[in-house]
Predict the structure.
Amino acid sequence: MTTIYISSKQAHNFDDYTINKIGVPSSVLMERAALAVCQRLLESRNFNLKKVLVVAGIGNNGGDGIAVARMLYLKQVPVKIYLLGDREKISKDSRIQLKNCRKLWRSICFKYR
């Protein structure tokens, strides 16, 4: 499998095109990205998943991390989330991901800095 790297500007342009031109909601892109990361983590022998800490910001990339944490939790992986940033400024999609996590389990570790 060949890995292709893109810049943050390219990623933003791809997201913008997919959301605004094709019409795929950003929340769907977030779920798909998280699913791909989760699948890769679970299939790889390069990661120790006995305890996982997801460190995420309050923007949409942080939402991707929160979604990954939720998916790992659903696969019985012990996971905690450390959220960095002002909780009042969390993005809409990240707030939805956080709400979804809280519905699933209460023992999750949410910290704001």
Q: What stands out?
A: Strands lie at 52-56, 79-83. The longest strand covers residues 52-56. The two ends are 38 Å apart (CA to CA). The chain has a mean pLDDT of 89.
